[in-house]
């Protein structure tokens, strides 16, 4: 009982004090910076009627801090999931999680020792090279994981939780099923672990990457704007950056329920992978009209934690059961593929 109580209280305290820690997603500096960027975007570009600064601030607050947005039923679920996942995920990772260190150890187990290759680069340039390569591989891992969540019907059932959001606030980033978190962790960890193992094994066993406040320096830099990915403030990058980097507006289009946007802009920070995969849609400078959510009429049913946690489990195993069912007649198979297409889920 003592251990359980300590676990609950310590992780709740961690969730509540996250804004005080620079290595946390909700660090106050990131939130304030996102707020400043959002207001400048509104004041200089989005506000349909130019106003003095004071009036612009008030109109910004009325539009983006309204009760209808932040106290919407969907937003309330985001807050609940933030705390419930904080309690659940350490337990889940204890049994099925793995780290880069585990991947590197496994790599060394299967690779015979070899002499280090002489590097033609000075140490500082080698450090910079590893910093860039690590980030690119991490970004690729996020894209692959996200594409698995969209393109494989079994995984899509869990990713639906995130896309069922009817409104977007920075807390929507935490609207995820635990299995979704695992997938988004497994793939980048595997790729970055292998990358680190190669650098350590063949070049320099002590090499690391540039960090700032405990975060990879590029992750730290992008965190200053990434909270706007899940907010309704339309912030784009100037051309040609918008063709190569995923802006907040790119990701808001990703949450669109309109068929023409389904499955677009899956990248984390780099738009390169979407460009190669054919899923890149560069957002216009001004926001188009589009609906948020799954687009299948079920969005209003995702307001209960028990449904969010257990619906994906039941639906995904129904998929497996239906696909494994022998002697299925053609009409049954056709009906099943209409509800759960094997290539493109209802709302990819």
Nutshell version of this structure?
With 348 residues, the chain is mainly alpha-helical. It has helices spanning 2-16, 28-46, 53-64, 67-70, 73-96, 100-110, 123-151, 153-163, 178-202, 217-222, 248-254, 272-277, 305-324, 330-339, and strands at 211-212, 215-216.
Overall radius of gyration = 22 Å
Global structural class: mainly alpha
Number of strands: 2
Unreliably modeled segments: 329-348
* Number of self-contained structural domains: 1
Principal-axes geometry comes out as globular
Q: Which sequence of SSEs, written as H and E, runs from N to C?
A: HHHHHHHHHEEHHHHH
Biggest sheet overview? 2 strands, antiparallel
Task: Tell me the β content.
Answer: under 5%
Total helical segments: 14
Distance between the termini: 43 Å
Query: Reading side by side through the largest sheet, how are the strands ordered?
Result: 1-2
Which percent range fits the helix content? 55-70%
- Give the overall average pLDDT: 88
Characterization of this structure:
The protein is an all-alpha fold. It is globular and about 65 Å long. It has 14 helices and two strands. The protein has one domain (2-300).
Q: What is this structure's SSE topology?
A:
Layout: H1 2-16, H2 28-46, H3 53-64, H4 67-70, H5 73-96, H6 100-110, H7 123-151, H8 153-163, H9 178-202, E1 211-212, E2 215-216, H10 217-222, H11 248-254, H12 272-277, H13 305-324, H14 330-339
Antiparallel strand pairs: 1-2
Helix pairs in contact: 1-5, 6-9, 7-8, 7-9, 8-13
Question: What are the defining features of this structure?
Answer:
mainly alpha; 14 helices; 348 residues; two-stranded antiparallel ribbon; single chain
